[in-house]
Each structure stands twice: as C-alpha cells, then as structure tokens.
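Limitations
The structure tokens in this dataset are predictions for the assembled complex, not deposited experimental models. Users should treat interface geometry with appropriate caution, especially where small molecules or nucleic acid strands are included. An illustrative entry is reproduced here so readers can see what is and is not provided.
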Amino acid sequence: MTRTVYLNGDYLPETEAKVSIFDRGFLMADGVYEVTSVLDGKLVDFEGHAVRLQRSLTELDMELPLTRDELLDIHRELVRVNEVVDGGVYLQITRGAPADRDFVFPDPKETPCTVVLFTQSKPGITESAAAKTGIKVISIDDMRWGRRDIKTVQLLYPSMGKMMAKAAGCDDAWMVEDGFVTEGTSNNAYIVKNGKIITRGLSNDILHGITRAAVLRFAAEAQMEVVERNFTIEEAQNADEAFITSATMFVNAVVEIDGHKIGDGTPGPVSARLREIYLDESRKAAI
Ligand code: PMP
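Predicted assembly:
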C-alpha cells in the first residue's frame, strides 16, 4: 500500500510529496517536530504533543498555521487512510521556503511554514524484543546545543550517538554533561534505587518528554516515590534498575550501561510495573 502523507493542506501519495530545496528545514534545520504514538488506531496523548508543539514554535517565533482541531483531524485522517493500528504519526513544521538562502528569518506573511505529516506502521510495537530483554546503553558526551527543551529537527548528534552505540554492540547512548546524565539520544533517562525513581529535573538541558510527564504522574498516583535530581553514570551503574521513556518506546528497561550490568541484568519490577500502567492508561485515554 502506498502511504498517504500530508503536505501543506494536501493529502498525497508519499512519492508525490515534494519540498523546495530552499526550505529552511532542509538548509538550516529550522523546524520543529512531534511524534505521537498510535495504539489500537488511536492517538496517545495528542493534547500533550499539541501543547509542546505550540511551545516549540513560540520559542522559535514561528506561528502554528493550523488550529489544534485541524491538527487532530489531519492526524486522524492519516491514521484512517493508512490503516495504522500500532505505530505513530510524525509531524514536522519548518519556517518554510523563502526565495533564496539567507540566515535572516523570512517574513512569515510572505513565507508560510511547511507542514508535513506522515504515519509509520509498527505492528506489535508494544511487544518488541527491546521491551522483553531491556536495552544496553553506552555513555557519550552531550555535545548538543543549549536549547534541548525545544523539539527541533537538529538530530545529527543524537543520530551519531545511536551509531556510536551500535558500533559498541549496544542499543542507545545516554548523554553526559558536567558529570551528570542529561538524557538518552531520543528518550528521557531514569534510575531506581531503594524503590525511589530518580530522573533529572526539567530545564533547557533536556526535552520535556510527554511520556515522562505521564509516567511521573502515574508513578505518583501509584504511591511510588519520585525524586527529580541529577545522577551520574556511576550512580546509574550501581542502581537497582534503570529505564527510559519515549513516545515510541513507552517505558523500556535499561539492563547494561558501559558494559556494567544493572541489577541482575534483566528488566526490573519498577520499570515493568510502570510500563504496564503506562500502556493500560494510554490505551484507555487514547483518542
Ligand atoms: N529526549 C529526547 C532528546 C527525545 O528526542 C525524545 C523523543 N522525541 C524524548 C526525550 C522523549 O520525549 P517523548 O516522551 O515526548 O517522546
């Protein structure tokens, strides 16, 4: 089946959707994105993603060319026509395509944003091998820019981080700045010690994960103790458990960091419980 995608108001076969070579997303990574996961054909936490999208755009002086309801309709229509059961919807908004390359932002009245959405089908996404066995991570220096709270399409360093992990026989990398873990290349990072869930607090240093917000809320509701503070790789290696959260991996155990096994090297009870609660609650609340 040829995938139908959305580009600037049109639903098109993916092969016919074309963007200008002068698009600032292409030339300057001048754009933001969101990934909303789909379970049982429904959108998980659409509201959270819509709110974060608006914040990213505001921080970059860009205007959302669509209302929240229009955005929701496009997401739903793409899920419907592409018959997505499990997977996700990728959305990207760039500062559009001016007549020529220029560092200066174009006038938004003359250069409308480019809006792209497409679906990704991932049958059985909740039953992945990574979820069963947990993942192995390496640590790398965090060499990204200083506004990681804005969800921009500058993903070269995270992409290089995944390649470094792959070269080391691992699944992902946790990034470290000034001695403390910031986050994973595409996820938020957590450890568990003596029943306490520990994760870095929100700031410009990390992306404010939509899954993170939901998981911390569910943890508090389940009377689990959450502490938002920095932690080191050494502390993580000596923790009882470690895990990550993201819209595409939900809650996933981390069982090895830089070759050092966490606990007994298998997914622990806290991450397993949080994953179960997160998936149950997300399915119930999906729209
Ligand atoms: N941190 C980074 C750097 C990410 O790229 C992502 C996923 N986009 C996350 C955290 C997790 O965010 P979310 O739970 O909203 O997917």
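Some entries come with short summary sentences. For this one: The mean pLDDT is 97.
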